[in-house]
Backbone:
């Protein structure tokens, strides 16, 4: 079970890397007002959602404890990110404040994961 949990943690990290990497590749364009949500951001957010749900289930099945408040906060942040990216995915440009909000929420999600013990 540990190997499976570690596999999903790795996939979860790949998802956050795709979401944050997609954001970072567009930061220069954000300054010009021409940033857009790239497909990697949507796929990364979806990967995070699927692997996160799987991790909660696997940890509970393994008899581990899950901090449901922390998971709830992370899920709420991810749903907002996913909603924004999904709705605006076909737009040629996205308002820089909205684009920045997605980046801020993504970084907040990372810090919640790492710092909340």
Residues:
């Amino acid at each position: 079970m540990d190997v499976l949990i570690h596999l999903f943690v790795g996939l979860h990290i790949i998802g956050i890397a795709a979401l944050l990497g997609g954001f970072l590749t567009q930061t220069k364009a954000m300054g010009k007002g021409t940033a857009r949500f790239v497909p990697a951001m949507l796929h990364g957010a979806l990967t995070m959602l699927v692997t996160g749900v799987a991790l909660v289930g696997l940890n509970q099945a393994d008899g581990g404890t899950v901090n449901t408040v922390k998971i709830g906060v992370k899920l709420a942040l991810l749903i907002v990110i996913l909603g924004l990216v999904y709705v605006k995915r076909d737009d040629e440009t996205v308002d820089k404040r909205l684009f920045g909000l997605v980046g801020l929420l993504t970084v907040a999600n990372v810090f919640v994961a790492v710092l909340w013990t």
